Each structure stands twice: as structure tokens, then as C-alpha cells.
Amino acid sequence: MTYDKNSGDDHRPNLPPSSGEQLAALRILDANFNRVSEGLRVVEEYCRFALEDRHLAQNAKEIRHDIGHLAAGISPETLAKARETLRDVGTGVTLGSEKTRAGILDVVIASTKRVEQSLRAIEEYAKLGYPQLSAAAKQLRYRAYTLARAMLLTDHHRQQMAKRLLYVLIDGRASDAEFASLVRMLVEARVDVLQLRDKRLTDRQLLEKAQLLKSLVEQFAPAGAEETAERPLLVMNDRPDLALLARLDGVHVGQDELPVDAVRKIVGPEMLVGVSTHSIEQARQAVLDGASYIGCGPVFPSNTKQFGSFVGTEFLAQVAAEIQLPAFAIGGITLENLPQVTAAGFSRVAVSAAVSSAADPATAARLLKTELLAAAARQA
Ligand SMILES: Cc1ncc(COP(=O)(O)OP(=O)(O)O)c(N)n1
Ligand SMILES: Cc1nc(C(=O)O)sc1CCOP(=O)(O)O
Ligand SMILES: [Mg+2]
What we know:
CATH class of the largest domain: Alpha Beta
Strand content: 5-15%
Keywords: Magnesium, Metal-binding, Thiamine biosynthesis, Transferase
Number of helices: 16
Helix content: 55-70%
Order of helices and strands: HHHHHHEHEHHEHEHEHEHEHEHH
Pathway: Cofactor biosynthesis; thiamine diphosphate biosynthesis; thiamine phosphate from 4-amino-2-methyl-5-diphosphomethylpyrimidine and 4-methyl-5-(2-phosphoethyl)-thiazole: step 1/1
Number of domains: 2
Bound molecules: ligand LCLJCK34, ligand 3NM, magnesium ion
EC number: 2.5.1.3
Distance between the termini: 46 Å
Family: Belongs to the thiamine-phosphate synthase family.
Shape: elongated
Protein name: Thiamine-phosphate synthase
């Protein structure tokens, strides 16, 4: 497709095609198309080789290709003419800070900024005669921003969850004493994440239970556990408001509940936001939405929740092959079927009944954790 000069709703007078201004604008567009493509290549390589995230690498590649299509909208002859006419005085101008980078993340952050700035330059200068191109550049700038955010968050959340393999969903039990006893056992068994999920409780009861959970974990975790990651992270199911009020570490939402950006408006930028996913498309979207981790299921029939269909281990294998955001397999997982889950490339699971309904929850949790650690070591 080629762009109609001055088509659309741009009301300013047309610039004469041979004017110096228009040639300068074309020269700027040309230079910035190149900068965006180069910057996206740096981003793509980071996603591919450093993050090893095929999904994000593919996303970077798609944006790069779409930039190519945009650039192709201006005829090569027009661009060539602009190139010859104007000398680029910017070549060779390098800021001291561009010569060295502290680390690989610095490199990629600098590139993402350049990509966004260059897309902004295209968006602005394309207004001089190429309004459709300007609008398309704006869309690409949003996509580049989403990619950059997802990439940096994936890295951050991967580090945050690095050693967190066993995630247990608990209900409020029949009494606070029973709840406290279960929480104590699970903290001592080194469960990595605890989710409060109880659909029977009123809002007020849920808040009180979440506050109790928080104080129990502070009481039972070893001293200094906050820093050493030796206490479980605490997650509230469904309810960002209650997670915030009880000062838990995160909230988990399903596909029909609030989307991540809405949850973030409630809980802020720091809190973990987990998202349930039931297909590879939903998993990919959760990465771009900035989820902190995903739940992938239901893998097997569950005694905790009824489902009409199951994703099986095929979905797990798809996620393991392309997504680096921490992912927990969920749904009917037990010590017996765990080998099928780990064989699909997962070393993180979220379970309810296998631990919460076990005769000895502490032993059940320990056995699962041992297997997950072994799987993680094999997969490393
Ligand atoms: C870790 C984890 N994964 C998935 C779910 C399920 O969430 P959702 O689909 O919203 O269903 P409910 O739990 O609300 O019934 C989860 N809770 N935790
Ligand atoms: C609450 C829930 N959500 C799932 C999903 O796939 O989204 S599976 C599930 C139940 C998890 O409990 P159990 O380990 O007892 O099967
Ligand atoms: Mg839910």
C-alpha cells in the first residue's frame, strides 16, 4: 500500500512536493524507519537469546515487519531523492552514554527507548503529507510500548518467582484454629505461594481471613524470611481490593474477572497479578498484558472445581516451548500424575486438593516440592 499525500482529515495546506521542508521530513522518516527496525532487531535478539521467550521474540519480529510495510508505503524513488538532497549532519554525533552499557538489560532498554522515540518522530513528521502513515505509526508505537513493558516485566517476574515452584490454594477451613494449623504446616513445608480461595465466605469474612493469613505467615516464617524468600508469597483469589486491604503480595484473576490493567489501577505496580489461562492465545495475551505469572489449566479433572473440558498436557508443552513468564500447571494435579506435568516441561504447579485435602498436608506438600525441585534441576 502507498500513502496518499495529504489525504484524510489533515486541514493544513499541501506542501509543494519539491519544497525543502518536505524533503527534510522524508529524510527524517527514512532515518527513523531504519532506527526503529534496528532497535527492534536488538529487542528481538534479547527476547530470543537472553529471555529465550519465543512469543516475545515473534512479537518483536511482527512489529519490525509491520514497520517495513509502513516504510514501503513511501515510494523508494521519493526516499532516494530525499536522501541525496539532504546531508545527514547527525551522523557521527554520539553521546558519551551511548558508548558503553552497564549490562544486557541496559542495552535493550536503550533500544526500546530509541524505538519508541523514532516511532514518535515518524508519527509527527508523517503529518507533513502522510496522515495515514502517521496514524499507523502511532498504533505501532503502542504495540512497541506493550512489547517493551512485557519484556521487562517478564524478566522481573521471572526473577521474583525464580525458586517458587509449589503453589497451594487453601480455603478458610471450618475455623480459624483449623486454618492456622494448616497454614503453619504449609509454611513449615516450604510451600512457595499460598492462595486464599474461598467462594463461600462473605467479603468481611474473606478480609478477616486474609488478614489472619498474613499475620500467621509472619509469625511462622523464619526470621528475616522476607528477604530470603523463605516465606510463601500470599495471593488473594479474585479480589484485588481485598488483596490490597490485607496487604497480601498479590491477587489472582480469571478470564472473566478484571483485566490486568484494571487490577493494576487498584493494587498499583508492585503487587503480583496472576492470570488463569486455558489456551495458548490467552497465555500470550497475559504476557502482553503484564501478568506476573499465569495459571495453566485445567490439566486434569479436579475435585475442587468442575470443568467441561481439559487442556491436558499439550497446552503445557506449548506454553513451556514459547513462554518464559512463570507458569503454574493447575487442575487435578497429584503426586501420581505429576510426572506427566514435568514431562511437558513444567516445574511449577498449583494444587488445592492434593495438599489441602490430604490426610497429612505437610507431607503431601514436601513430597510435591521435592519432585518439583528435581524437575527444575533436570530442566535447567
Ligand atoms: C494459580 C491459579 N490458577 C488458576 C486459578 C483459577 O482462577 P479462575 O479461573 O478465576 O477460577 P476461580 O479460582 O476463581 O474459581 C486460580 N485460582 N489460581
Ligand atoms: C480453581 C481451579 N482453577 C483451575 C483452572 O484450570 O483454571 S483448576 C482449579 C482447581 C484446582 O484445584 P485442584 O488442585 O484440587 O484440582
Ligand atoms: Mg477467579
